[in-house]
Amino acid sequence: MTSIQPALDGTVPTPKIPAARRKAEDYETWIDEVWPKYLEAAASGRTYTIFEIADQHQLAEPPDPAHHWGRLATLLREAGYHRPAGWTTSSRPSSHHSGLRTWKGTAAARRAAA
């Protein structure tokens, strides 16, 4: 059982429960859902991380999160829609500020969005 410490005024704070993210049933359905959001981000010309876009749009988790997020980044790069832009620390709570790649859209992404 988890105990909750009351505040000094005697009130009990509401627990902070992280928002649950739904998980996609299969890889192809997940790719179909998330691909347009990453093309939109790439076409914007700004630098982004994969997690920032997923968090901003509350995208579903893939069936295998440990591998599919990286595979998505690779597919976008191989398709010519984004390129590596540098490194930053992650804002994902479970990553403990580990380093991760930042991405920037290409001219091909801007043409695909037009």
How would you characterize this protein structure?
- With 114 residues, the chain is an alpha+beta fold.
- The protein has a single domain, classed as Arc Repressor Mutant, subunit A (Orthogonal Bundle), CATH 1.10.10.
- Helices cover 40% and strands 15% of the residues.
- It is built from four helices and three strands, in the order αβααββα.
- The protein has a three-stranded antiparallel beta sheet with strand order 1-3-2.
- Helix 1 crosses helix 4.
- The longest helix has 18 residues, at 27-44.
- The radius of gyration is 18 Å and the shape is elongated.
- The N and C termini lie far apart (54 Å).
- The mean pLDDT is 86.
- The CATH class is Mainly Alpha
**Main sheet makeup:** 3 strands, antiparallel
CA-based shape? elongated
The CATH architecture designation is Orthogonal Bundle
Rg, Å, rounded: 18 Å
Q: Please, how many domains?
A: 1
Q: What is the fold named in CATH at topology level?
A: Arc Repressor Mutant, subunit A
- Report low-confidence residues grouped into runs of 5 or more: none
Count of extended strands: 3
Helix coverage percent: 40-55%
